[in-house]
Amino acid sequence: MTTIEILNAIFGLIAGGGLSGLVFWRINRKRLKAEAAKTEAEATRTKIDNDGCVGDQWQEYSIEVKGERDSWKEEFYKQRDLAERYYSDMISLREDKDKKIRELQKEVNELKLEKEHLIEEKHQEELKCLELQQMKCEVKGCKNRRPPSELMM
Question: pTM surpassing 0.70?
Answer without folding.
Answer: no
